[in-house]
Write a structure and sequence with these properties.
This protein has helices at residues 33-44, 46-77, 95-138, 141-145, 151-184, 196-201, 205-224, 227-248, 298-304, 320-350, and strands at 256-261, 273-281, 286-288, 307-315. The protein has two domains: 39-253 and 319-350; 256-316, no CATH class. Helix 2 packs antiparallel against helix 3 (95-138) and helix 3 (95-138) packs antiparallel against helix 5. 61% of the residues lie in helices and 8% in strands.
């Protein structure tokens, strides 16, 4: 007796909905096409997802150990909030201890911050760029698109799972790094919140850039259809975008102006981000610092301009989170816009 299964029977033959060889919508296990696609995406990108897990777990363990050692040193020497040059009376005589702390731990903290600074570009290059480009380059997308699963549903599954993985991984690492930063960041380590490393590693900023990198890589791969070329372009675009935001970051929020009377010690708190300084005349007008910077009698220049005070425009530490959320919001808007473009281009090409 023949036992061959035919289409339309209860046999094991594949149907048009079977995109991963596990059965269609009504097949064994009751798996829907969307769940089947999610499983397919998971299988295709297991190495990348596994690498993200390793980075998160390994990075969290290393940072936890680093935090414990930093906290022990700071508590033992009572230098919390102290810097090499500090206005706080309780920090008097601690310069050498702070210097020893920086020699022992500051570089490790910078390496951790650098990792979070570079992580979005790594995600864009090794996860975002090949996400669609590899399928288009090899032609494997045709296998899926000839099934009854609609192209946009395939693209949704293809992008949603990596986006969730990236969101979870970068959020976890940013949270752990912020936990470490609370102990030895800013004054003690000498890596301040407004530095490129510190700002790009704290709070929502690395998360937003990681999602943007994923969107940039996906769009680049869709347009170029070449994996290696898409990886190179994604790296260049992310380096450009992050460089631009470094330049415009101070202008995302109005600065605070601090005025010091003439002759007074003009020094901002260690945690403030200086922007511009100069002189204030008796009439209240501002003069740039360069007005009396030319060779000659400095005091005579001040008298000639009727200088009565000096000013510092700065971002106090209270501006950190407003600046961070503003930048992250802009970056997320860019990521959403690029994702919309990805879906529009894909729909126009594949229906």
């Amino acid at each position: 007796m023949s036992t061959t299964a035919h289409h339309g029977t209860g046999g094991a033959a594949r149907t048009a909905d079977d995109t991963d060889g596990t059965g269609g919508a009504g097949a064994r296990g009751g798996r829907t096409p969307l769940r089947g696609l999610v499983w397919l995406v998971w299988r295709q990108h297991r190495p990348a997802f596994g690498a993200l897990c390793v980075i998160v777990i390994g990075g969290a363990i290393w940072l936890a150990v680093l935090r414990g050692r930093m906290a022990g040193f700071i508590d033992a020497h009572h230098i919390a909030g102290c810097s090499l040059i500090s206005l706080d009376p309780r920090c008097e005589g601690t310069q050498w201890v702070v210097s020893d702390f920086r020699g022992a731990y500051a570089q490790s903290l910078r390496y951790a911050a650098m990792g979070l600074l570079l992580l979005p570009a790594v995600i864009g290059v090794f996860l975002g760029a090949p996400l669609v480009a590899r399928e288009l380059e090899s032609g494997t997308h045709k296998v899926v698109l000839t099934q009854s699963v609609r192209p946009l549903r395939w693209l949704t599954a293809k992008t949603a799972l990596p986006a969730l993985a990236v969101l979870a991984a970068t959020s976890a690492l940013s949270a752990v790094f912020g936990w470490v930063w609370q102990v030895g960041g800013d004054e003690v380590s000498g890596t301040y919140w407004y530095s490129t490393l510190g700002f790009n590693a704290l709070g929502p900023v690395p998360v937003a850039y990681a999602l943007l990198a994923l969107a940039v890589g996906t769009l680049t791969g869709l347009l170029l259809r070449r994996t290696v070329a898409s990886m190179a372009v994604t790296l260049g675009v992310m380096a450009f975008v992050q460089s631009v935001f470094v330049l415009i970051r101070p202008y995302l929020r109005p600065t605070v102006s601090t005025v010091f009377p003439k002759g007074a010690s003009a020094q901002l708190p260690d945690s403030s981000w200086p922007q511009q300084q100069g002189h204030v005349t008796g009439s209240g007008a501002r003069l740039p610092e360069s007005a009396c910077a030319s060779p000659g009698d400095y005091e005579a220049c001040l008298r000639n301009h009727d200088v009565a005070a000096s000013y510092f425009d700065n971002h106090p530490v209270s501006h950190h989170w407003p600046l961070a959320w503003t930048e992250a919001g802009i970056v997320l808007v860019l990521a959403v816009a690029l994702t919309v473009i990805v879906f529009r281009v894909f729909k126009r090409r594949f229906g």
